[in-house]
Design goal:
This protein has helices at 14-25, 41-45, 72-77, 80-89, 109-121, 173-180, 199-205, 238-244, 263-273, 279-283, 289-299, 310-321, 377-390; strands at 3-10, 30-33, 52-55, 63-65, 94-96, 101-104, 125-127, 132-138, 141-146, 149-158, 185-191, 195-196, 212-219, 222-230, 234-236, 253-257, 323-325, 329-330, 338-343, 361-363, 370-372. It is α+β, with helices and mostly antiparallel strands. Helix 1 packs parallel to helix 13 (377-390) and helix 9 packs antiparallel against helix 12. It binds dihydroflavine-adenine dinucleotide (FDA). Dihydroflavine-adenine dinucleotide is lined by residues 10-16, 34-36, 41-42, 45-47, 51-52, 132, 159-161, 164-165, 169-171, 173, 337-338, 365-366, 376-379, 382. Residues 6-391 form the RsdA/BaiN/AoA(So)-like Rossmann fold-like domain.
Amino acid sequence: MAQKFDVIVLGAGAAGMMCAIRAGQRGRSVLVLDHAKAPGEKIRISGGGRCNFTNIGAAPQHYLSGNAHFVKSALARYTARDFLDLVERHRIPWNEKTLGQLFCDNSAKDIIAMLLSEMSAAKVSLKLQTAIDGIEKSPDGYRLATSAGQFEAGSLVVATGGKSIPKMGATGFAYEIAAQFGLKLVETRPGLVPLTFDQNTLEKLSPLSGIAVPAEVRHGRTGFREAMLFTHRGLSGPSILQISSYWREGDDITLSIEPDASISDALKSARKTNGRQAAQTALCEILPKRLAQYFVENRGVTGNLADLSDKMLTGLAASIQDWKIRPAGSEGYRTAEVTLGGIDTSALDSKTMQAKAVPGLYFIGECVDVTGWLGGYNFQWAWSSGYACGDSL
Ligand code: FDA
């Protein structure tokens, strides 16, 4: 005999737990199933262990999706302020780092404990280490065969996340369920991920490995101004992770290092006041020594500033602040923070996350074709889509 619930949520991650809490608060009997040993594993490792749990400025323009309007309803229904209120009710100490990013003072585990305590208050059942073997439509909803037996529910919510960090149990299960029920998918790819170079470029740039600088990184009309890091395989740091979600193979990105300074103006003014200075010495006022040396050597610039024409200085500055470079690829799902693409939003009702053509079936969180910028936006989507769904059950 199958055990019956009003709602079954697949996935005890950020979105699944929030949805279960809201549905439970509304008096529904809710079961959450997960194949992992512990709930909220990605919450635990997020934000370097301190969980950047939301961004106080979260708004639709911070999300990538085939339909830019899709996120509006859920984000308005459950805002960053709403989540912060919950955090404060649980007396979890937090701080704002930069750019509206809110982090726990102590540990991401505080957020998991908060969600588990809300789940228990809402009488939600949680079954971990449970493999889902099959899902089928039943007369009253959905029947699930699992390693813990058979379960049935009128509503089935899929919150099993994306493919990033397979080592932590990420699977493409949500996409398989979507395909089983005939829902369209937007092709998936790794997002918020370091970019890599081909062997030739790597050899040239290898002396720079380990250097971190402020940079503006652009792809087409999109640009991010944050820290950038040269790694032994390519580029990383927040500005690179951000642009990686927009970048496609075969495209260039444009780097402007120390974007708040005009290197061209600085070199020209140094030439006026100190013409005997070498270009590399002048550049060292702005850039780390190894970088200054790399650019000067790369442009073949020698001699004193006084010997260098405007054109040479402008060219040198452009090689630093208008540097077009073509990544060969990315580090992939192994290290990507998120999965771009997923369940096509045109198949879902943006108010409830229900599949339009499949009553009682819902998709929330990262498995949907909605991906936030770096900075707490992805958890906010998980909370907002989870709440909107739970509030409709
Ligand atoms: P999530 O992946 O959290 O949960 C899915 C759940 O489903 C998991 O518990 C999994 O075990 C379960 N599951 C998967 N397949 C299953 C199957 N076949 N059967 C049963 N269960 C299954 N975002 C942010 O806003 N701020 C931050 O600080 C960070 N930091 C960060 C660091 C790192 C290293 C990563 C990888 C990611 C982040 N993120 C982030 C992104 C954030 O973690 C992500 O957007 C959310 O966790 C997505 O929440 P979901 O609930 O949709 O999926």
